[in-house]
Write a structure and sequence with these properties.
The structure is a homotetramer of 360-residue chains. Chain A is of the alpha+beta class. Chain A has helices spanning 37-47, 107-114, 130-148, 174-178, 187-202, 230-239, 260-263, 333-356; strands at 4-5, 10-14, 21-27, 64-66, 70-71, 74-75, 80-85, 151-159, 162-163, 209-216, 244-249, 267-270, 273-276, 284-285, 288-289, 294-300, 310-313, 319-322. In chain A, the strands form six sheets. A five-stranded antiparallel sheet of chain A has the order 1-2-3-7-4, covered by helices on one side.
Chain lengths: 360, 360, 360, 360
């Protein structure tokens, strides 16, 4: 009962990896946006697995179909249903998992919660669930860009111990992020990240990382005190992404070490509006955007599925050794980039509608 | 339109620092809980200002009144309205702020959002708003403790550069936390924190910190995939607290540096149920509690109001120097402890009701 | 968990007849409305018991206090908490009801639902709960009137078999409605209604009635297909009022007997906009207002508490005779008038905000 | 932003008549229900057009596909997405409506609300939107029947001036309702209704009617005071159905004419529980079910699309004559029967989950 997110711009996702399809219904988007499947496909292609090895024909996988809400290439203001078929339903593939819950996976908790042992394990905990988010987010993103000039760019800022240097947040673009498969816009760091990921894969292990995101041209005044503060909704949105373990806005955890005299962002005059000289606030004060770029970071854990043998127990508590077969992502952060962008777009879109509701 | 939080256990807070009262309405709590004002007052006393200097008569300030929802000392299952009067409404006190927005405060963003310049500045951004949260959280906390044995303890784990050592999460108690006004259960660290806070106050500056929290005996199966995952709701709840800048669950940002082979929590048999040998997951897998302790941390920035002069601009963009007068908290984390506990209790209470709804 | 109503303009009511107070929190109203307690008191006075016999000093009863959300006589855009104290808490008065549930009352169902036997019976089923609705509705009503020229007038159209003739919906006013205590704006009918009510009271019985309502100057475009259609939200709002048994919009149940050629409302040109020649639609087509007056009716049952002896059974199923003591309203519809207006104002206010959210 | 209904059992519908598909996502249904497409198809077949003339191959039209939420024939507890393709998208068919809004249709109001002139007119106001409701309702209905023995039966009680006699509410079944295409379980009345509908069709006109519904074996204790009272949610649900103009529970509008001494339902002992001797309450007291059958009625207007010429104006206010071409239903009530049942099932299912949440 929680596959929906948002108050006025509301996404509902559906689908397990082993069913017919995954997708989303996006309700509340105003009418009149020019929208085609290609607009959505672009972000889905950035999310899909296997993209960087170029072994798969892109046009064949995770192809989105718009089922409703668009007429003559324009949104109607009605629910936009989007569907991506599951081409590859392998219900037999998870045999061992019927008896042994994978450590740090959702197998065990789903079974406890729902009281059933599904062949798809924690079907909604699958990375495939995020397809619906990315599709809906791509629609919101286009609406934000065309109507408000809002520009959302996420990138990989750390993989394991390798961290990107400080980047110019004004010039970062999705293009510069995608220049390297690691999705770090600093080429040298990206290369090192790619090496680390390759080494980890070789070792049949996995590694975590951090995705950063900047949202430019977000108007001041967005965010709904006191529980739907801008950063509170972002935090919920980001922590709802599979494998996310942490969220910080602006100075984040570093703020805990700082003095107020350093942390405070003095106001300055910026071409007719008030801006701030620094942006430790991350563009948000009192839960409301102040017109500066929204800047936040999301920490992701290393993927739980690894090829290395793991000593654990089965559902009956008997010792068992688990070795994952097949191909698994050794690091999720490059593919998490469009997911983070999608969730940011959904949050911002919702907050714009909620602020517009005031009629100001 | 966002002063409410929760789906089934739902709190609505109200009140500005300059109005007649602040408070909360808690709807959805099942009937039959023994509840008196003293149960709520205890946590309010831990939140109120001035408590550690002992200069104020505690029984006189922030006294809660239950207006509804309780009859003959038992909850009725109907909305519990709670009110705390504002004794000290000083509308004249903020004269300078009418013209100069305080850096990193909500003055400016509230004015942009709501289109008015209230004498109370961003009235709902005041720390006083958290009274309603703490009152409602105290009710939820008692219900969780008495009906499920759930035990929520938060503490100060860092102030500035001073960090507590690893603590035994099984034995921590509110009593041990309150043994020192800094609310760090490690006495030596607490003393150093107190020294730092005193020095910062002396310097007319402020300092940030981190509050950690452990929730014990939380049953497995709580959390609503995919958007209302346990950690996602906790993240929203915590980032909605004034001055919060970051949230992390379990391994948190440290997970980004780890390998899966280290991070994964192997299952082990624990007296008839499955437990985990380590708890990097922080008690949550796939958005659902696994029966291990829920462990998370919240970063708070240094308070924005400082005595040091700040160079900034007024609402018209003209240079101005701001110097805060009066007494202000140089560090919020000791008082944030009961707020973090309150928000955790509200999240857990809501998730229990939502899981019970399944009839399992 | 359902004491809240509305999506963007959201009221939460609280209070039982035997607690300290009843009231409401209204969240989401835009800032800047001039508001004082007198604005709210006027509608509360129209709701309160005993008003037409003039035996009570009005200024003493059901006096509202605004606790928050208003500063210097203007709304802040933050939650407006309003409270009315209960002066007359008689917990001992319901002795017999501890053992015998009143027929057609909520005593039995509340006990089944909440699992407790409260001294206040179904405390939230008390007419006193509607104080919070009327207070919140009065605020919404003022906002609608001053900002949009919306004019909501309800009146008593039938009591028992006595029905008012067709009235001019363009000239009806609250003043004309209040000209007679029966709140029927047709004086002759009102007199007959008053006679009937007196006779029913004399007979220790009660009688039902119908309240009609017209909302003028409601802009076209309000209503949220498909589940929050204008008439759907009105229906929910009205059926949530104690003792309501039916709702109809426009032609209502009479539509079931009509032919389409008669029922259809042809469009005509009305001073630069499209209007309709007739208004069988009641101002709503496809769930969306069309600019014509919103017209609806609400049926109320006869009050369940009557002086006549009733043969029933106690909670153990043993035969019992119930005779209500004290003074009870023999007919609720005159006092229901401001409640219907309040709920209509809350629905319309919410739908305006939701439509404004589209930025059109 | 209102295509969702329900708090815990939550349906989201999507689709216009001229898009690729219509459908629904049902979120919140507990895991473990045996469910196949045939279970849903049965109710869809009762809803679809053309069914009683038997000219169309049933297996070809409005065929539902389950996209998610079901695995190995059992619900997973995750969102159940269902889709019905639109076979017959005729965007060119509505040419005249581009310039002339149909009287008492949603053409005009949709244009005002959404600011666009869609080829599908008020696409979501189409009867086709109800496919999603019926599909989701069929799932809820099966769950209610199998887990709680709840039995929901709706039927046509009036068409125009022809009204069914009082029926035995204990023995009515969907089978007896479907015995005649008019869906009135009294054969003689059904025949007269069919004659009237035929005559109205012949006259190129349309006619209204009333659908009644009984829900048996609904447990006592359902309904969420004060705004989500059982009858309040039913009223919203029913008034959200296209063409609905009125709702009444139990005695309904007739209650307005009754005395309390007659209307009150005395309690009696019924095989170990309290029941009532009469059921003017319609199974609900104080907004909460009392264990007696839930009985309500919904009034539907005559369909707006008629073959008779109508004098109206175009969007520019210029006189125009409208004559609908093609085949249109002259009376909606026979097909509304499964829609009413679906909405009732969704309401009851949601209220059961909400009551179970209390853990009682």
């Amino acid at each position: 009962m929680s596959s929906s997110f948002g108050t006025l711009l509301r996404v509902t996702t559906f689908g397990e990896s082993h069913g017919r399809a995954v997708g989303a219904v996006l309700d509340g988007l105003p009418a009149g946006l020019a929208l085609g499947e290609a607009d959505i496909q672009a972000q889905l292609d950035r999310r899909r697995p296997g993209q960087s090895t170029l072994t798969t024909d892109r046009s064949e996988v995770d192809q989105v179909r718009i089922l409703s809400g668009v007429d003559h290439g324009r949104t109607l203001g009605t629910p936009i249903a989007m569907r991506v078929e599951n081409r590859d339903q392998r219900p037999g593939d998870y045999g061992e998992m019927d008896t042994v819950p994978r450590p740090s996976h959702a197998d065990y908790t789903y079974r406890v919660k729902y009281g059933i042992a599904a062949s798809s394990g924690g079907g909604r905990a699958s990375a495939r669930e995020t397809i619906g988010r990315v599709a809906a987010g791509a629609v919101a993103d286009k609406w934000l860009r065309e109507n408000f000039g809002i520009d959302i760019v996420a990138w990989v800022t750390t993989v394991g111990d390798i961290a990107a240097p400080n980047l110019n947040l004004e010039t970062l673009s999705r293009q510069s992020v995608d220049a390297h498969p690691a999705r770090c816009p600093d080429p040298k760091t990206a290369a090192r990240m790619a090496e680390l990921i390759a080494a980890v894969r070789e070792a049949k292990d996995s590694v975590g990382g951090i995705v950063a995101c900047v949202c430019r041209n977000v108007p001041a005044g967005l965010g709904e005190p006191v529980f739907d503060k801008f950063e509170a909704l972002l935090a919920q949105a980001m922590l709802s992404i599979p494998a996310a373990k942490g969220f910080e806005i602006g100075s984040g955890f570093a703020a805990a070490r700082m003095r107020g005299s350093v942390h405070n962002d003095p106001f300055i005059e910026k071409s007719g509006r008030l801006g701030t000289a620094t942006n430790h606030s991350g563009g948000i004060q009192g839960g409301i955007s102040n017109g500066e770029p929204i800047v936040f970071r999301v920490a992701f854990k290393p993927p739980a599925t690894i090829g290395l043998p793991q000593e654990t127990v089965d559902y009956q508590g008997r010792p068992a050794t688990l070795e994952a077969r097949g191909r698994h992502d050794p690091c999720v952060v490059p593919r998490a980039v469009p997911i983070v962008e999608a969730m940011a777009a959904l949050v911002i879109g919702d907050l714009i509608l909620r602020q517009q509701a005031r009629g100001r």
